[in-house]
Amino acid sequence: MALVGFHFKKITAEKKKPATGKISVNNNVVISKLQEAKLNMGVSKQAGIEFSFEFTVKYTPDIGSITLEGAVVYMGPEDKVKEILDKWQKEKKLTPDVVEQVYNHILHKCNVQSLILGRDMQLPAHIQLPRVSGK
What we know:
The chain is α+β, with helices and mostly antiparallel strands and 135 residues long. It contains two helices and four strands, in the order ββββαα. The protein has helices spanning 78-91, 96-120, and strands spanning 2-15, 24-41, 44-60, 64-75. Strands 1-4-3-2 form a four-stranded antiparallel sheet. Strand 2 and strand 3 (44-60) form a beta hairpin.
């Protein structure tokens, strides 16, 4: 199983008012759709899946938000791809190994992009950044 692609389809960032006082930040990732992807690898086609997702960061009280929509492309053996697609179609669920790999990849890419967008929009960091103490 290998993740072979990642791309953003839509990026939205909005700041409604200055960030002051007590601020709450909530992050969320949702896999919205799975579809089969035939990947050209040299002379052969490989089985794959495109996982469409939406990553959101909401700053409350109603300060702003960041929304990233995109897709992760997974390549694997045809039987594994079929199993994943069938389980999704029947139950809208993924196996733990797929969840771990796909979500970690999405979180890695989207957290970095959201930090950059938040900085440019003058919104606070949505994840805890490392700090140096004087001791």
